[in-house]
Amino acid sequence: MTERLKTVFGHLQLPKRTDGLINPNNVSGVSTPFRFTVDNNKLTQQQRQFYEENGFLVIKKLVSPEKLKVYGERFASICRREISVPGMTVMRDIAIKDAEFVPGEQAVTKFQDFQNDDVLFSYCALPEVVEYVECFTGPDVMAMHTMLINKPPDSGKMTSRHPMHQDLHYFPFRPADRIVCSWTAMQKINRENGCLVVVPGTHKGELLVHEYPKWEGGVNKMYHGIQNYDPSQPRDHLEMEAGDTVFFHPLLIHGSGANRSKGFRKSISCHYASGIAHYVDVQGTEQETIANEVVELVKKKLGRDVNISFADVWKYKSRPVKGQNLLNST
């Protein structure tokens, strides 16, 4: 464990939060060294400096075991088809044949877009999570992308790993510095079962070109990775206990290793953006390929004659958490 991780792991006595935010694109109305966090007194100076330097911050035991149990039970109920969630995407690993919950069916490896399920969405609105989210987005908070990941045991061909990537690749909204992911371990997560791997400091760089990795055994849909990624870059493996939560910047290069254990590895996450952010046109940019892929999938479901844009898809996926929602007002 590196010294960086030691500084963020552990219980911290934190000062009371305020909502002071003058300039939503930076941090305050006065000159400060902080770019990636806002002035609201929730984070300690040490925590702010760590996130500013590294692009991620781990908070120990942020989400209680009781709440994690609720999300786990809801996941199981949906897998058993006892509950149907409108608009949610259920993903299955290309290499999995045996189900965890439903005998004879492929195992569910991920829920995406569970914003219409109030039980799972309650994670995104947890006060203990949102008060940290506000440190990065400011007081106007939108939940933009929701996931519950059920990483399966590896098939032997490393298909359970997730390539190194930047989340901003998928997002047509800005500014990037007012976007943050909250990612919570639902169980003990370590290198054996495929913990997150991050490259500290890469949030200060640019959005890189992504593509599908050319892996034996294939790769799951939408699992794009950085083109010509340099694996020699220094990395941190985020081993976490149940309830531990990492907050990270959308330009931070990260991925996850293969699940070499015999069990499934679960986490729940939400990407948030400032409610006063804005959409951008990604045509002609590195993001055009993923934008076209997403729109094509939506048209397969809704019909070829549907007139829908990449931004429209994200407006549908998102749900307000608190404050203003100017992002989706037009």
Q: Layout of SSEs?
A:
Blueprint: H1 3-8, H2 45-54, E1 56-59, H3 65-79, E2 89-92, E3 108-112, H4 118-121, H5 127-137, E4 141-151, E5 162-165, E6 173-174, E7 179-185, E8 196-198, E9 210-211, E10 225-226, E11 236-238, E12 245-248, E13 254-256, E14 265-274, E15 278-279, H6 288-302, H7 310-317, E16 319-322
Antiparallel strand pairs: 1-12, 2-3, 3-4, 4-14, 4-16, 5-13, 6-15, 7-12, 7-14, 8-11, 8-13, 9-10
Summary keywords:
single chain; 330 residues; alpha+beta; eight-stranded antiparallel sheet; four-stranded antiparallel sheet; 21% helix; disordered N terminus; EC 1.14.11.18; metal ion binding
Mean pLDDT: 85
Count up the helices: 7
Shape: globular
In terms of DSSP E residues, the strand content is 15-25%
Show unreliable segments: 1-31, 102-106
Q: What is Rg? A: 19 Å
End-to-end distance, in Å? 46 Å
Q: Helix share of residues?
A: 10-25%
Q: H/E element string?
A: HHEHEEHHEEEEEEEEEEEEHHE
Return the structural class. Answer: alpha+beta
What's the main sheet like? 8 strands, antiparallel
Describe this structure in words.
With 330 residues, the protein is α+β, with helices and mostly antiparallel strands. The chain has 7 helices and 16 strands. It has helices at residues 3-8, 45-54, 65-79, 118-121, 127-137, 288-302, 310-317; strands spanning 56-59, 89-92, 108-112, 141-151, 162-165, 173-174, 179-185, 196-198, 210-211, 225-226, 236-238, 245-248, 254-256, 265-274, 278-279, 319-322. Strands 1, 2, 3, 4, 7, 12, 14 and 16 form an 8-stranded antiparallel sheet that branches. Strands 5-13-8-11 form a 4-stranded antiparallel sheet, with no helix packed on it. Mean pLDDT is 85; it is low at 1-31 and 102-106.
